[in-house]
Write a structure and sequence with these properties.
- The chain has a single domain, classed as 3-Layer(aba) Sandwich (Trna Endonuclease, Chain: A, domain 1).
- Helix content is about 35%, strand content about 25%.
- The protein has about 180 residues and is an alpha/beta fold.
- Strand 5, helix 5 (about 130-140) and strand 6 (about 145-150) form a beta-alpha-beta unit.
- A six-stranded mixed sheet has the order 3-4-5-6-8-7.
- It is globular.
Amino acid sequence: MESPDDVSDWLQVLDSTGEIFVVPPYFENLGKRLIKSPKVYWGDSGLACYLLGIQSASELERSPFLGCLFEGFVAAEILKSQINWGQRRELYCFRDQQGLEVDFLLPRRKAGVWLIEAKAGKTVQTRMANPLLSLERALGKQSRRLLIVHRKAATSFGTTAIARGVEALSVEEFSQQLVRG
């Protein structure tokens, strides 16, 4: 059995080579009882699918890992855009002991913090905005943009306001906005 130090060392090697990336928790100025463990994602969703034995798009659609893989894909897009813009890697997750969880918090220069939920579904529902709205209340004026990033449906019509102050963007639209800075 490997010691915790060995596991930590291997995670650090995988992170520094880009095979995985570690998304630390966000806990600035929040008095809640937070879960301070990071999330870990594969840097290459294709490699992750291979390691899971997923060999086709139809297998991926039926996979119980689709949501996790999509979340990792969105995180990778965010980190790639930061690297391409010469910015430091800055992406966080949020979880508290009361069950509130938001996939990503993305600090933006002069634009506050973006709160982002990644949903593998193609249909966005109003209830998906609830975690974003709850965390926005806790953060106050720090949060500037609340986003649900989803897979594109055949009948998608661009940005959709699904709740007051919450936008739904396909992953393609979201990636374009990241590229624009």
